[in-house]
Amino acid sequence: MDINEDDEQLGETSEEDDSELSDGELQDAFAKGLLKPGLNFTTQEPKKSVNNVEGLKQCLADFRKNTLPWVERLDMVNLPADDIVAKSEGRLDNKASGDINPDDDFQREMFFYRQAQAAVLEAMPRLLKLKIATKRPEDYFAEMAKSDQQMQKIRKKLIMKQTMMEKSEKAKKLREQRKYGKKVQVEVIQKRQKDKKAMMSAVKKYQKGMTDKLDFLEGDQKTAKGGAPAKGGAGKTAGGQTPDKKAMNKKGPNAKRKYKDQRFGFGGKKSGSKWNTKDSHNDVSGFRAKVAHGKGGKGGKGGKAGPGGKGGRGPAKGGAKRPGKNARKKMKGRS
Amino acid sequence: MSALKRKRGGKGPGGKAKKVKLVENGNEPQTTEMEQNKEISVPAPVSMGKWKNKERVLVFSSRGINFRTRHLMQDLRTMMPHTKADTKMDRKDKLFVINEVCEIKNCNKCIFFEAKKKQDLYMWVANVPHGPSAKFLVQNVHTLAELKMTGNCLKGSRPLLSFDPQFDKEPHYALLKELFIQTFSTPQYHPRSQPFVDHVFTFTITDNRIWFRNYQIIEEDASMVEIGPRFVLNLIKIFQGSFGGPTLFENPHFESPNTRRRVIRMATASKMREKQMVKELQKLKRTENKEVVTRDVTDDVFATPAEERPVHIELEAPAAKVVKKNKHKAFKRQRMQKR
């Protein structure tokens, strides 16, 4: 939809009879190009705004307090400071506030900032002359405009922003690295395939009796040692070396595995391996009549009395005999 | 602290003797007083000079302001130590009542926030007994509480006021400049002020509005950080009196928020209406029964200049064809294979 401002001519006609414009008039207007398609509004004549210049000047003269020195007022009128960034880029820096685009946030705020900068630069010498400090001494403590809590919050936010930036940067780097890594991986795989192919073809050749050299089998070792033969290459050395190395490095299973193997066995039939066999049944070498059938003394049974296992393998300890019930009662009473 | 103590440099009953004492031996009388009363009180900031410029600004608002305006008002009070506060004005009260309030509060400048419709904020800046006064529409308010404003300054330190050169070009801006200087500049040696200048208020005219910013001076080489608050003042009118009187200036570029909203509403409404009309027209078109086209104009294309033949109609069925083909004959492919 367009809001077209009608021309003055039309405006006048509409004033006379607002909605009752005759069709003929409208058609004429359209033919002349005054009317455009779309919805048309009748525009009001711009209001005459008051601007009493004399009054303003008079008022200002009455109102001004010329008696006050500059120290009391601290006012400055100044253009913005030089725009260093614009200068370095060879642009013209806008000196008047009319030049800036109010919708361009950054430009606008920069302009304000520069104006404040210029004010500070200009005011500094004057303040120095008047001996007014712009910085409080280190040991001067006073209430600030913003509370410590608020400043803490601000600091936290700034730090968070920074960490976020760092994180995103890191992620970006990682992504790039990953991309590169993938490329390398693909290359390696291709090389391996190529090598394999070469090897297979060599084997085939040997099978068909075209050659009776078995160089290709040791080819990798050769390449590893010295100058690369025709089809060798860096890839082969890398591929061929690893298994050898592994074999070299391997010294059997680790200690834990060894122990477990020894304890539980490995491989072979497991169930029933602990059952008695005929031989084990007949083997009575471990039997000792002294200890058998609980003859090992009571100490064997008592948990505290001695370390002897079941069957009282340890020597019977006469001294550790439990006193009788009465004796025990007496003991209890004594202590 | 009592009002008596606060007015160290000022008048008051028996103020003369006290004043002389103060000037002579600095802070000593206060400490002795403290010892006598045996109460702990924080001494006011020490200022060596005399407080001459007795400018006081009343900062308050009407009822019905939102939280942002309240914060802005609070921020102005913290930034300007020479302000006073008052309770909110009733909306029914006439504006010239403010003059009396200011008189009671002993203020000669006034910043009055007027909220309307719970969304529009107007600000009056007035020189109280005699005028002039200006009315602004306040837009784009950001307060001190925002985390983007990272600066900080002493509470009660004095600001530098920086003005755009455009303020000197036009008479109404010149008047506003004077008004701003007198309201926003903190008097030297004000008892509640600090003897430092560590922030800058900037007033810039762009887009026919006055933009207010507040920066902290970090280093002497003019590196700064914004403290806040920030707001934009859109001038509406300048009056000769305070809160009334003949109009001296009226901003021709000002568009009231009401009309602005109205235009937007009307635009959307007319858009809708147009859409509806188009829809209806289409509907009407669809319901109109179409004319049956009897003759196709393009038929002429097919008219060929050949002579007409009599229409031949077969009345008998055509004779059956004799099939000669050997049915059991193999395909060519099979024959080829056999060979």
From TrEMBL, chain A:
Residues 1-27, 221-335 are annotated as: Disordered. One of its GO terms (biological process) is rRNA processing. Residues 229-238, 299-317 have a biased composition (Gly residues). Residues 319-335 have a biased composition (Basic residues). Pfam families: Ebp2. The keyword Coiled coil applies. It is found in: Nucleus, Nucleolus. GO terms for cellular component: nuclear periphery; nucleolus; preribosome, large subunit precursor. Keywords: Coiled coil, Nucleus, Ribosome biogenesis. Its main location: nucleus. Residues 1-26 have a biased composition (Acidic residues). PANTHER family: RRNA PROCESSING PROTEIN EBNA1-BINDING PROTEIN-RELATED, RRNA-PROCESSING PROTEIN EBP2-RELATED. Required for the processing of the 27S pre-rRNA. This is Probable rRNA-processing protein EBP2.
Automatic annotation (TrEMBL), chain B:
SUPFAM superfamilies: Class II aaRS ABD-related. It is found in: Nucleus, Nucleolus. Keywords: Nucleus, Ribosome biogenesis. GO terms for molecular function: rRNA binding. One of its GO terms (cellular component) is nucleolus. Pfam families: Brix. Residues 1-36 are annotated as: Disordered. Its main location: nucleus. Transmembrane segments: none annotated. One of its GO terms (biological process) is rRNA processing. The keyword Nucleus applies. The keyword Nucleus applies. Residues 1-20 have a biased composition (Basic residues). Residues 55-244 form the Brix domain. Required for biogenesis of the 60S ribosomal subunit. Belongs to the BRX1 family. This is Ribosome biogenesis protein BRX1 homolog. The lineage of its organism: Eukaryota, Metazoa, Chordata, Craniata, Vertebrata. The gene is BXDC2.
